[in-house]
From TrEMBL:
Keywords: DNA-binding, Transcription, Transcription regulation. It holds the Pfam family HTH_18. PANTHER family: ARAC-FAMILY TRANSCRIPTIONAL REGULATOR, TRANSCRIPTIONAL REGULATORY PROTEIN. This is AraC-type DNA-binding protein. InterPro entries: Homeodomain-like_sf, HTH_AraC. Residues 183-281 form the HTH araC/xylS-type domain. It comes from the Bacteria. It comes from Filimonas lacunae. GO terms for molecular function: DNA-binding transcription factor activity; sequence-specific DNA binding.
Length: 287
């Protein structure tokens, strides 16, 4: 299924306080228009049938699974799709309310969401997550009080940590030290991607060799360290192309490429389309 089969690509509706959670029970969620999201999303689906399309990837829905969608991605449920489960939306500004100790978990899961788009969930893990989502939903529907956003952010932090643990177990089952080092690396990439693209620089920050870092990333994340860095750069480039009017030249220098041509070659090599073609496709459609 391709986006041309949908009428238009609409932009996310504004969410009050950049945070929302809801429960769908046997809900028909087929969409005539695709949605370009400005809020990160988590779907915890206990039961599901149909299809979810994210960017150009099609995911058959089967239930007992998580879907993680990052700001800037385009998604749609195919007509006739039915889901039972939770939908959680949050903006980056709301995430900043969560304790800093959880920042690496978000980096692992959402900085290159395409690598973690769908996660199968073991029944025991699903039961634990459902309890957390139930508690979060109850808190969300309470009347407003002074520290309510902080309470919601605390639940979000716990949910993010639990999902990061599920992701780590699915990918590798590595010990806690290796997982922690991997998360430190992805956290560093999210902070320094615009100043350095070199594996060796991140290895120095972590006190390991570049070879060790690459091996660890393959073990814990299924991809090499360079691929993770490139994934962050592509994600940030896409966001800039979609949500700003900056020229390609300006984006290239913002991401620390030596020349616009170097950036253009990098972008096309990793996405299959030029930066201008990408902007035309995802920004002008539906306007």
């Amino acid at each position: 299924m391709k986006w041309k089969e949908y009428g238009t690509i609409q932009t996310d509706k504004e969410i009050q306080d950049s945070f929302a959670v809801c429960y769908h029970e046997q809900a028909t969620v087929g969409m005539e228009d695709a949605c370009r999201i400005v809020y990160n999303r988590i779907f915890l689906l206990s039961e599901a049938q149909g299809t979810l399309v994210v960017d150009d990837t099609t995911w058959p829905l089967k239930g007992n699974e998580l879907f993680l969608l990052a700001k800037g991605q385009v998604f749609a449920f195919a007509p006739g799709s039915v889901i039972t489960g939770y939908e959680l939306s949050f903006g980056d500004c709301f995430w900043e309310k969560a304790p800093a100790s959880a920042s690496n978990c978000k980096a692992v899961l959402f900085n290159n969401a395409a690598a973690n788009q769908q996660l199968s969930v073991h029944p025991a893990d699903e039961r634990e997550l459902i309890l957390l989502f139930q508690a979060l939903l109850r808190e969300y529907h309470l009347g407003d009080y002074i520290n309510k956003p902080d309470a919601l952010a605390a639940y979000l932090k716990i949910i993010m940590i639990k999902i990061a643990n599920i992701q780590a177990a699915l990918v590798s089952g590595t010990d806690s030290y290796e997982s922690q080092l991997f998360r430190q690396f992805t956290g560093l990439v999210s902070k320094h991607y615009s100043s350095t693209h070199e594996v060796a620089a991140y290895a120095d920050m972590l006190g390991v060799t570049a070879r060790r870092l690459t091996d660890l990333c393959k073990q814990c994340g299924g991809r090499g360290a360079k691929d993770i860095i490139n994934g962050q750069l592509i994600a940030e480039a896409k966001r800039a192309l979609q949500f700003s009017a900056k020229a390609v030249k300006e984006i290239a220098f913002q991401l620390n490429f030596s020349t616009p041509d170097q950036f253009s070659h990098f972008f096309k090599k990793n996405t299959g389309v030029s930066a201008n073609e990408f902007r035309e496709r995802f920004v002008k459609i539906g306007r």
